[in-house]
């Protein structure tokens, strides 16, 4: 499906859904499995905004193991977070953040369908159009852009706590403001957030520049097994590597440390496409795809049941790492030819 920015009617419907609630009604916020900075920051920032409006029964969660990645553990609003088993089972309103398809909600998908009202805030062009009111803007650099707009529509003024959540979300999903969707409007939003009293340098050091020694050693090993294929992707070049559960165990690291591996891999000058294959279970792999601009990797991801953007996408693969990469290589050739 082809997505456009949310209409005035969709914004009005979203505002009406929130304003129809009493302050004692239950609101359940959900983001995707293995949450990143945009998912958590958008969700917690919006949750704090709801608290400012007087809603005192707000919970936030995500599917899977209840572990918040260390770079985001200190985000304001973390007190709203609960394990998925503690989520409101009969919430009056469910709001979903940064989720392109219901499959990314895991066992929490039933809460969405059971709720009398639901909102979906997202910016993925591959969004499947699920949920009640859809605020999906593929032009937005991050879901936090959509969340900030809805907070403004609801009359919530930015404070330092809300702003920190939204700034972390914005900074992480724009790659520290260096990706293509980093527009003038994005910098203007960042300026408004910083104006609340944020210290960007301090936030950046915590989020981007602080990793355990074991994570650094693991990254070195994974980089050492990278493979460059100049002839792949129609001659545009592909570089790939993989990381296993044994790697994580050997260096005593949690799975989220693997998420940062795509950044050094994508910097390889000879390749437009970069691929990192990360093991999540026996024979099951989370596949991250990136492009410098010449190749649309979202088509590959969507064809495999995943999603994302033109230059950044992902999906779940099965088999051995070389088999997963073989599938990516073949699909790239099919799309490019």
Provide a brief overview of the structure:
The chain has 337 residues and is of the alpha/beta class. 38% of the residues lie in helices and 17% in strands.
**N-to-C terminal Cα separation, in Å?**
22 Å
SSE pattern: HEHEEHEEHHHHHEHEHHEEHEEH
Shape: globular
Q: What do we call the CATH homologous superfamily of the largest domain?
A: inorganic pyrophosphatase (n-terminal core)
CATH class of the largest domain: Alpha Beta
Q: Which architecture of the largest domain per CATH?
A: Alpha-Beta Complex
Strand content: 15-25%
CATH topology of the largest domain: inorganic pyrophosphatase (n-terminal core)
Please, what is the average pLDDT?
94
- Structural domain tally: 2
The amount of helix comes to 25-40%
Number of discrete helical segments? 13
How many beta strands in the DSSP annotation?
Answer: 11
Low-confidence stretches: none
Structural class: alpha/beta
Explain what the structure shows:
α2 packs antiparallel against α5 and α5 (about 160-175) packs antiparallel against α6. The protein contains 13 helices and 11 strands. The longest helix is centred in the N-terminal third of the chain and has 16 residues, at about 35-50. The protein is α/β, with parallel strands linked by helices and about 325 residues long. The chain has 2 domains: about 10-205, inorganic pyrophosphatase (n-terminal core), CATH 3.90.1640.10; about 215-335, Roll (Diaminopimelate Epimerase, Chain A, domain 1). The strands form 2 sheets. It has a 6-stranded mixed sheet. A 5-stranded parallel sheet has the order 2-1-3-4-5. Helices cover about 40% and strands about 15% of the residues. It has helices at about 10-20, 35-50, 110-115, 145-155, 160-175, 185-195, 200-205, 215-225, 230-235, 245-250, 260-265, 300-305, 320-335; strands at about 25-30, 60, 95, 120, 135, 225-230, 240-245, 275-280, 285-290, 305-310, 310-320.
